[in-house]
Design a protein that fits this description.
- The complex is a heterodimer of chains A (187) and B (177).
- Chain A has 187 residues and is mainly alpha-helical.
- Chain A folds into two domains: 1-98, Orthogonal Bundle (Rna Polymerase Sigma Factor, Chain: A); 106-187, Winged helix-like DNA-binding domain superfamily/Winged helix DNA-binding domain (Arc Repressor Mutant, subunit A).
- Chain A has nine helices and no strands.
- In chain A, helix 5 (99-113) packs across helix 6 and helix 8 (151-158) crosses helix 9.
- Chain A is globular.
- Chain B has six helices and no strands.
- Chain B has helices spanning 6-14, 23-35, 51-84, 87-90, 96-138, 144-176.
- Chain B is elongated and about 170 Å long.
- Chain B starts with 5 loop residues before the first helix and ends with a helix.
- Classes of the chains: A mainly alpha (187), B mainly alpha (177).
- Chain A binds chain B through residues 19, 21, 24-25, 28-29, 32-33, 36-37, 40-41, 46, 49-50, 53-54, 57-58, 61-66, 109-110, 112-114, 119, 122-123, 125-127, 141-142, 145-148, 173, 176-177, 180-181, 183-184, and chain B through 1-3, 6, 9-10, 12-22, 25-26, 29-30, 32-34, 36, 38-42.
Chain lengths: 187, 177
């Protein structure tokens, strides 16, 4: 089943590389929600996340001719572009981490996620704590537990060894827990 | 917020999977992206240049290659000429006369050094012999043969007066008798 999906994706990818827009459209439908979620959790602002996601896929479409597989899945390539866009976004805008500002921005997208006000507040706290971590640790937690990627896929997207990913993942979870405990003590 | 174990935290993180982009945004973005022209990276320019352009390009290539070869040959010839013919002029140190003079100077220096070494060797030997002799004289009292001969001589010296005493005693006895 998985092999069939991969074969289909491989065929679609070949067509997209050849310039077939409908094939790229199919890839867009598959990966756009994942990339949007990744970007949204990194920038915590819906409109900025939309803008950056659009830029990621525009760049992917304009450069897909130069994409060569070499065992690298298309998802890893898209995540690489997305990471670079997020880094550029912070570099150019110097976005400051203001809790009030973030809380305002968090509401629109988390409304769909949270069943209750309590859940929504919890998720907001997690997202704020998540953003205090090192960017690599944020990426790993989002890719692993939100996006459900394997360590191998994360390693490929972040250009790191799988062992490094495991270590970073462990540290990231520990740091996130610490941050949440700290915010709980302050409250 | 406190989590008793990591699993609870992971479960909370997994809830973010329900975040989705707005449908209107997705449709608009996709439409805009797919309407932009596709850049092909595999296409090669197949436009054939006209004969005069080809000739010009070919001529310029020939000139370029020829100039490279010419420069290379010039460097080779100059270096060969410099090393074989002009070397004494360009590099005076390489002339046979200067090399011979330098070799002779080195040879004389080496001879001087050798004679100095010979002198040091002789003086060292003489010093060693003198020290040996001195040490032998200084420690004569420790030599067994010398000690024995000295003891014999001393014994003789000591025994002489006793003989005299005996003779005197005999003489006194004669006189008293």
């Amino acid at each position: 089943m998985v092999d069939a999906r991969l074969t289909d994706e491989h065929e679609i990818l070949k067509k997209a590389i050849a310039g077939e827009s409908s094939a790229f459209g199919s890839l867009y439908d598959t990966y756009q929600p994942l990339i949007y979620r990744f970007v949204y959790l990194r920038v915590s602002h819906r409109e900025e996340a939309e803008d950056l996601t659009h830029q990621v896929f525009l760049s992917a479409w304009q450069n897909i001719g130069s994409f060569q597989e070499h065992g690298l899945p298309i998802s890893s390539w898209l995540y690489q572009i997305a990471r670079n866009r997020v880094i550029d976004h912070y570099r150019t805008k110097h976005v400051s981490l203001s809790l009030n500002e973030e809380n305002e921005d968090l509401h629109p997208s988390l409304d769909d996620v949270a069943d209750s006000l309590e859940t929504k507040l919890q998720l907001e706290q997690i997202q704020v704590a998540l953003r205090t971590l090192h960017p690599d640790q944020q990426d790993i937690l989002i890719m692993r537990f939100v996006e459900g990627l394997s360590n191998a896929e994360i390693a490929s997207a972040l250009k790191k060894h799988e062992g490094t990913i495991r270590v970073l993942q462990h540290r990231a979870l520990r740091n996130l827990k610490k941050q949440l405990e700290k915010s709980h003590e302050i409250q | 917020m406190k989590f008793n174990n990591t699993k609870e935290l992971i479960t909370q993180l997994e809830q973010f999977r329900r975040i989705h982009p707005r449908a209107e945004f997705s449709q608009d973005s996709k439409r805009i992206i797919l309407s932009t022209p596709y850049k092909s990276f595999s296409q090669k320019t197949t436009i054939t240049p006209s004969w005069d352009v080809q000739l010009q390009y070919g001529f310029s290539s020939i000139v370029r290659i020829g100039s490279f070869i010419g420069i290379g040959l010039s460097i080779l010839i100059i270096s060969l000429y410099a090393t074989h013919e002009l070397s004494p002029v360009l590099f005076p140190g390489l002339s046979p006369q200067s090399i011979t003079a330098e070799a002779e100077m080195l040879n004389s220096n080496m001879n001087i050094e050798l004679s100095r070494l010979g002198y040091f060797d002789t003086t060292a030997q003489e010093s060693s012999a003198a020290l040996k002799q001195l040490s032998q004289k200084q420690f004569n009292h420790l030599n067994d043969t010398i000690i024995t001969s000295e003891a014999t001589a001393l014994q003789e010296t000591i025994s002489t007066p006793s003989d005299d005493t005996t003779q005197i005693n005999a003489l006194i006895n004669q006189l008293s008798n």
